[in-house]
Q: What sequence folds into this?
């Protein structure tokens, strides 16, 4: 992305990514996949940025061990934290639809689908164990009449937050200028996106070079829009605090099916 008035003045660097199962073309990709690029970005930012925090949104949270390991790099020791936002029971894509039909008329398919949100919640609790121990949070989006299907990653550094205040929690991006990178696209950051589905994302790395002070206001405006996407979702979310420690550590079967 570049400012139209000066071709050499980049606002951000856009990196398109692609992911597909090996069976799709009968061979593996000959370039770095979306999963590899995302994991590399998370590792690099955690080690390079100061007090780095990562915020991840996934409609169907089914985090793989490799991604969970990368997210766990953001924690108390680094000065930042990991925050994950996913669908709550009310706004889950597989939540039972509210209608006037009697439960006796509900088909077997609908009955099976109604159990899916609870299955995902089991995986959410598993991820919460690692996130909470690193000073992070799991947020559940619940908004009556809305279905949650947002996905993305926001990475910040030195996003100062006054813990003594009664204002928004640390999961909110307090200072949009602290954004260093974001990812937008189709990926749900789960086992299915990694192993079964075809996905395409775009990594944006913001240009924060010291010689770009003249365009600081313009760049902050762009970052404000990016930060607002995350912050607006947090407005309708609640922190998951109950039963985190009771999660089953072995959910391989559930992860494979979902």
A:
């Amino acid at each position: 992305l570049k400012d139209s008035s000066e071709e050499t003045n980049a606002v951000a660097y856009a990196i398109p990514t692609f992911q597909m199962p090996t069976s799709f073309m009968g061979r593996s990709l000959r370039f770095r996949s979306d999963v590899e690029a995302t994991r590399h970005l998370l590792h690099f930012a955690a080690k390079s940025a100061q007090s780095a925090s990562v915020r991840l949104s996934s409609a169907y949270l089914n985090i793989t061990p490799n991604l969970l390991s990368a997210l766990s790099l953001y924690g108390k020791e680094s000065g930042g934290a990991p925050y994950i936002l996913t669908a709550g029971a009310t706004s889950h894509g597989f939540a039972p639809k509210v209608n006037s039909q009697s439960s006796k008329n509900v088909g077997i398919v609908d009955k099976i689908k109604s159990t899916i949100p609870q299955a995902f919640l089991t995986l959410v609790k598993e991820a919460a164990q690692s996130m909470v121990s690193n000073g992070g949070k799991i947020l559940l989006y619940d908004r009556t009449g809305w279905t949650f299907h947002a996905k993305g990653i926001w990475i910040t550094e030195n996003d100062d937050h006054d813990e003594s205040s009664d204002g928004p929690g640390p999961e909110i991006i307090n200072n949009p200028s602290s954004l260093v990178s974001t990812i937008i696209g189709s990926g749900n950051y789960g086992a299915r996106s990694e192993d079964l589905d075809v996905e395409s994302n775009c990594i944006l790395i913001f240009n924060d070079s010291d010689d770009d002070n003249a365009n600081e206001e313009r760049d902050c405006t762009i970052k404000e829009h990016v930060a607002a996407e995350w912050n607006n979702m947090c407005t309708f979310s609640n922190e998951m605090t109950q039963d985190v420690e009771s999660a089953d550590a072995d959910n391989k079967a559930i992860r494979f099916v979902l």
